[in-house]
Amino acid sequence: MTFTVGHYLAERLTQIGLKHHFAVAGDYNLVLLDQLIEHGGTQQIYSCNELNCSFSAEGYARSNGAACAIVTFSVGAISAMNGIGGAYAENLPVILVSGAPNTNDHGSGHVLHHTIGLTDYSYQREMVRHVTVAAEIIVSAENAPAQIDHVIRTALREKKPAYLEIACNIAGAPCVKPGPISTLFSSQPVDDTSLNAALEASLSFLEKREKVVILIGNKLKSAGALKEAVALAERLGCAVTVMSAAKSLFSEAHPQFRGVYWGEVSSEGTEKIVEGADGVITLGPVWNDYASVGWRKLVRGENVIEVNPESVTVDNQQFAGIPLKAFVSALAEKAPSKPASATDAYKPLSIAPAAPDAKLTNDELTRQINGLIDGNTTLFAETGDSWFNATRMNLPDGTRVESEMQWGHIGWSVPSVFGSAVAAPERRHVLMVGDGSFQLTAQEVAQMIRYEVPVIIFLINNYGYVIEIKIHDGPYNYIQNWNYAKLMEAFNGGTGAEDGSLRGGQALGLTASTGAELKAAIKEAQKHTRGPTLIECRLDRADCTKELVEWGKQVAKANSRKPQA
Ligand SMILES: C/C(NCc1cnc(C)nc1N)=C(/S)[C@H](O)COP(=O)(O)OP(=O)(O)O
Ligand SMILES: [Mg+2]
Q1: pTM over the 0.90 mark
Q2: Ligand 1 pocket test: which of 55, 383, 541 has the largest number of ligand atoms within 8 Å of its C-beta?
Q3: What are the chain's domains?
């Protein structure tokens, strides 16, 4: 077999630990797709469209560490850019690969199909540059290895997406084989002088503090420092809280865990713990308008040691060139060792079971899902009241929660949970998604059927965009209702095999309008393993968390700030 440019890419993807890649066929990428199939190192998984393809890759990266999506030029890649923007916002190394025009067309004055009708095809790379950390156009086999290595190396180092465009007549061109993978793993250098200065400043900060609290943000995960955060917490013996986007990054079974901090909509008691501390160490925080409840609840300033992916800020001084992981492990060694002194209590969620035949409520729904999840569950929470329901749950040790609180693209969760389940089939995947969000990417349930991925989908039907209704209501927040459970029959068409037989799994579609119906549906879902189960949970539109109502008010205020004079 001649080793080709496509084989080089396939070999590198396999070497960095991918077992799958996601793809949508198009005439600019068919030869490239053949090369990956021929190489065989990663299984080719197909998506219904390129938006879902990029989100499935994003979900794969959440569980596997990195991912790859392969699409066709322009009509495919521009759709995929939305999911790549999400991967950028959520710090996930996804490699977007686009098939591209034949090299003989460049500069030929040819107008090509799928393009915007101009003879300059470079617009795609210009667009994607804004949502990637590296972007290369491959038009020769000689340069391909260095370009592919540069794109993968940068994505892995920065934990951000990157882009490769491969001309359709180059994908199958003969190419050298890659060397050892070690050249692709370049870690961030540590500036020792800056690290020691930051440690000194932090130790003197801690000496002057009575009551220290740790607040964890979601960039702790992309910094790969979860264990180091536990070591620091146990050294300091202090209370540990998490931001909502970091839910599950610190075990809630740990004796020092003290809830989710989210301003007024924190876990009960947690707001007082964080705001009552005289010193807070924030690890990988993301302070956006939603996380700060409309720019009002930011934990920053003179009583804070803010530890970001490459810098530490303490006592009004910023120390650069320090990877978060290096700082946290060094501070865990040098900080004064105190026995666990976290006393203040926070009040974990407790919801009394509803009467079995009473109309299903959001509380009863949350209580039963909380009862379903265990240490082997990855729970996806879509943008919507699902954020608040997941945030208030009590997580068993080992449960993982995935949300997309920075990008917040509704519908992200359906393809993303599929991608995560492909990456980690040994974990139980559970999805909470609202009716509005589901309508954007519903067709990806068909891939869960095709690949027999047993996701349990709680389709929370509150008949509209309730988050938006709470922020600012209008006719635009009301949507056509679907018969969501019945929709599963439409997807159960079977996978046309070469011999004409219909293979693949089956989706189960169930509805629940009372607690008893929900309980029975969950039991059935747990037994159904040959594909997804969608349980349409019917709620009153007015039935949402009190946290959403409070938060929505504050976000609406922030959105309506008058222009500065
Ligand atoms: C329309 C929109 N956001 C605006 C929006 C619009 N388009 C995209 C791609 N992403 C977005 N976040 C949002 S959060 C809806 O309330 C979601 O509705 P649903 O899934 O039904 O959840 P809730 O009812 O719990 O709010
Ligand atoms: Mg809704």
Answers
A1: yes
A2: 383
A3: 5-184 (3.40.50.970), 192-343 (3.40.50.1220), 362-555 (3.40.50.970)
